[in-house]
Design a protein that fits this description.
Layout: H1 3-12, H2 24-45, H3 50-58, H4 62-85, H5 94-114, H6 118-123, H7 128-146, H8 158-184, H9 191-200, H10 203-213, E1 217-220, E2 223-228, E3 231-234, H11 245-259, H12 261-266, H13 271-277, H14 286-291, H15 295-307, H16 325-333, H17 337-347, H18 353-366, H19 369-375, E4 391-392, E5 400-401
Antiparallel strand pairs: 1-2, 2-3, 4-5
Helix pairs in contact: 1-2, 1-3, 2-5, 4-5, 4-7, 4-16, 4-17, 5-8, 7-8, 7-9, 7-10, 8-11, 10-11, 11-15
Length: 404
Amino acid sequence: LLPAEAEALVQALQGTELRDIGGQGWLRQHEYVEKLNMHGILSASAGQEQLLTELLVTHAKIPVLIGELISVEIWKHKVFPVLCRLEDFKPRSTFPIYVVLHHEASIINLLETVFFYKEICESAEDSVLDLIDYCHRKLTLLAARSTKAPATVPVFPQELQKQAETMEFEISLKALSVLRFITDQVESLPLSALTRMLNTHNLPCLLVELVEHCPWSCWEEGKLKKFENGTWHMVPPEHQVKMTKLDGQVWLALLNLLLSPECQRKYRFDGFNKSQLLKLRAFLTDVLIDQLPNLVEMQRFLSYLAVTDPAPPKKDLVLEQVPVIWDHILKKNSGKWEAIAKHQVKHAFSPTEEELKFQARRWAQTYSLDMMEALAPDKPRCRVCGVEAAKRCSRCRNEWYCTR
């Protein structure tokens, strides 16, 4: 995007009412988010994402994006189950429904790209509490997946269920990255944010659960598979001890939450928390520490924790802020879920053939082939010899080759 285009798209972002989700205005907003998301990824890969972060801060759009994230999450859990029970809900509606699901993934992906910057985290202001709560819910889903407990993913029509579960998993992994970036800025966060992470949600113990069960790796027919860059792939024996980016995010979040002096003053090191944290000692091998040398400090801290009882946190009088976006949406729409579902069946999820074709043409423009290739994490390879390829078949547009 040109700078003027990026600024126009950022300025156009605005909060959406729950009943308008899936409508024409909302779909246009999704296009804006998707274009900014792709622009952010390409800019980040080129080290030029400063413009996008400056625009989002200048126009105060981070709280708007967090609000959209919470709205879609509430819609999935409150409105969508009611929608599926209505007789007027037709299979044709799955196209706009899929877009609604994808909207959450696009926003969390955009936030993951920009939250690396301190000014973005600060510009979230009080809405960072809602984002922390959101990330906690997603990490709880990941922990439930890893321990084979039933995860609370909404039930979708059969043709969408598998896609929805895959997307929910990937969204949860993005939320892990966002949370880690938030923990990088503990000194800049409101006091309530730190209390919420440490004591309300007990994120250190939840992160220990993720280290212990590692939901992004699994054994299949005696072979180790790991999830990285959007796909599951087999890991050869010589790389099985290699730390993935997701492993690194968990360990870095733990370092931020446990070794910061401010966090140590606020966290309750009671019997349960202490026993959970000491489980980490088994995972701090020399091989792991070689890959992330900062973990030496974690090893020392856990050795100290094992032989001492840290002082309990001071019981200061604290006026704690509470997340406002989630509560506001629930209070505003409580008891109206069926009315919202009926409105959306009539105005959003019963498109005509012409409307579907028109929307499909708009998506084709948004997701151009050249753009999707630029976003792909891996370079195309020659079908015959496997080397990096620069030429593509002009007929099928799928197969790549290196030389004639």
